[in-house]
Amino acid sequence: MATITECRGALDRLSDNLARADEGVRGAAALDRSLSCHITDLDTTFTGRLADGRIRVEGTVDGPPTTKAQIRLSMTGDDLVAMVAGELNFAKAWAAGRVRLEAGFRDLLKLRSLL
Q1: CB of 42 within 8 A of CB of 77?
Q2: Which of 11, 25, 63, 105 would be a feasible disulfide site paired with 21, CB 3.0-4.6 Å?
Q3: What is the DSSP letter of 90?
Q4: pLDDT band with cut points at 50, 70 and 90 for residue 53
Q5: What is the C-alpha to C-alpha distance for residues 68 and 57, in angstroms, rounded to an integer?
Q6: 55 phi/psi in degrees, rounded to 5
Q7: Which residues are CB-contacts of 5 (< 8 A; sequence separation ≥ 6)?
């Protein structure tokens, strides 16, 4: 089982990957939205923002998110680490119910290029 430190590192690597991505992906990630990532097996939520093509983690809370972020992710720590490492395909994990992504319709359309 991934630790909170490993999950935080995965989010930092994901942020770095977005910052180095090609123009199309950077454009999709250029949203300015609140973000939460609930790690279900650790019952911890990372909170922050997706802004300027990067993920900025601002804190953690125990349990599910206390406020409704504009973009909400939910998955196990192992799935987060595996996705960022390229070992787990996001679209397949989402289709199988291993990952939940909730956002407004327009944001989902923009984010689909990240998948």
Answers
A1: yes
A2: 25
A3: H
A4: confident
A5: 15
A6: -100, 125
A7: none
Rounded to a whole number, what is the distance in angstroms from the first to the last CA of the chain? 24
| Spatial distance between the Cα atoms of 79 and 1, rounded to a whole number of angstroms | 10
Q: Give the tens place of pLDDT for each residue, 1-37.
A: 999 999 999 999 998 888 787 766 656 566 899 999 9
Q: Rounded mean pLDDT of 84-108?
A: 92
Residue whose C-alpha is closest to residue 73's, from 19, 14, 17: 14
Residue 92 corresponds to which tokens in the numbers above?
A: 């397949």
* DSSP H or E segment with residue 64: none
CA atoms within 13 A on the CB side of 92: 7
